[in-house]
Amino acid sequence: MTIGPDIDPLALALAPPPGETPQDRETRLQQEREAKKRSDLIDQELARQRTTEKKGPKPVKILLLGQSESGKSTTLKNFQLINSPKAFKAERASWRAVVHLNVVRSMRLILNALQEAEAYASLPEPPNADDPVYPALTPDLLTLKMRLSPLQQVEEALLGMLTPGAKLSKAYTALPDDPLPGAPQEVSVHSATPWKGAFNRLMNNVRSSVDGPEVNEPQDSREARQLLHACSEDMIRLWVDPTVKEVLRVHRLRLEDMAGFFLDSIERVTDLSYEPSDDDILKARLKTLGVSEHHFNLKAGNIVPQSWIVYDVGGGRQQRAAWWVSLSFGSLLDLPFAACDSVPYFDDMDAMIFLAPLSCFDQVLAEDETVNRLEDSILLWKTIVSSPLLKNTSLILFLNKCDILKAKLESGQKFCEYVVSYGDRPNDFENCSQYMKKKFTMIAKQFSPEPRGFYTYFTSVTDVQSTADILGSVRDMLVRQNLTRSRLV
Ligand SMILES: Nc1nc2c(ncn2[C@@H]2O[C@H](COP(=O)(O)OP(=O)(O)OP(=O)(O)O)[C@@H](O)[C@H]2O)c(=O)[nH]1
Ligand SMILES: [Mg+2]
């Protein structure tokens, strides 16, 4: 057959074969229907791939876990410092307010201890044998105490500016052995409250000038800083006073071991031109409530930037109750306090960084003074590694606060008095830290439902450089892990 100009080749190709029987026709139509179905499926798959490519590859998800004050938010700050330095810098004004709140809280703890010493002194009867014996307060100290009363006003003003959602956590009152009603509490902020944004917006119109660092600063903020600056000398006098040191010793309050300690830098941090350094920001303490997610674009070597999401949670006892719900039911977002705008699931995490502060071997929980902090960390670790929901999540263990552990051991604090199983091994950092590493590793091996990636680091996450190195190797390891997983898929 020849094809002439009046013959459509397509119609010819689609035409039924000559001499087709009804049965042949049915078979042919059936085959055509199946071919169409296959073609539609391929089209759908291509469309899905195009959408996924537009959205970019699946982000790497990391969950930060650990008890309160273990260093989760400080680790997050390191992520921000490395990966979003501009945003980190832009938030300095907010962190300055937190540093100031930390100073005020330390001061109020001292004033509270002085109050107790005064109350004991005024008792008509001599105290019982096991009552604390406080030194007599000098008239000079009583005057200082009175002169520092405006600090409460500073605290209220700073809190009010940071966010109406910020509140004084009840947790602090449980710290001293016998807390007085009205003891200064720890400042916390709910992760649902965009506190840094709110404060920065307040400061938005602030511009630098030769007259002062921030001429358009809101009046409340300026007044709070001026008041704190005016109290600076009195605060220093109070902090270095030998009677105060003795009162604190009797009160068993070591402020220098507490989170957010800035009393050795009062003059610097209350200066009117003070800008917090990176180290100050890492040291500043703000208790986390709820869950928050933070997005980063990370670049490793020649690999295209990868999107990472880091989840920070509150580690207090009450906050943890919610983790258990998540470990049982999956979603963090179902929790009443969650602040995430997408739905994060524990079982969808690529890795979990668990922070166990080794230095807390001689401390008890703020929420329950019958519980040793290190023991609490070990139990928490056991529960988390046993969770079936996290069985595919790589475990990254940060044995944290190594700087404080070293200092404590060097000052003669005995590890074996608190960790009895440590026995008569040497009381030095090398041996104590390796002992704890073995303990945590054994639990991970024994209680993990399935074999999984497990990496341990000795950390001091307030140290910017060493933490940057560690987070760099965590990043490389997760990039490799993801590549291996995608090849396997
Ligand atoms: N010296 C020292 N201080 C640390 C270290 N890690 C954290 N800190 C300090 O410990 C305090 C508590 O750290 P955070 O990161 O706020 O603790 P968190 O785990 O987020 O606590 P919650 O929000 O209550 O769950 C902060 O003042 C930190 O500066 C460390 O390795 N060394
Ligand atoms: Mg936190």
UniProtKB/TrEMBL annotation:
Question: Could you tell me which SMART domains the record lists for this protein?
Answer: G_alpha
Mention any one GO cellular component term assigned to this protein in its UniProt record: heterotrimeric G-protein complex
Going by the UniProt record, its keywords in alphabetical order are:
GTP-binding, Magnesium, Metal-binding, Nucleotide-binding, Transducer
Q: Which domain of life is it from?
A: Eukaryota
Give start-end positions of Basic and acidic residues composition bias. 22-56
What residues does Mg(2+) bind to?
288
Sorted alphabetically, the Gene Ontology BP terms of this entry are: adenylate cyclase-modulating G protein-coupled receptor signaling pathway
Official protein name in the record: Guanine nucleotide binding protein, alpha subunit
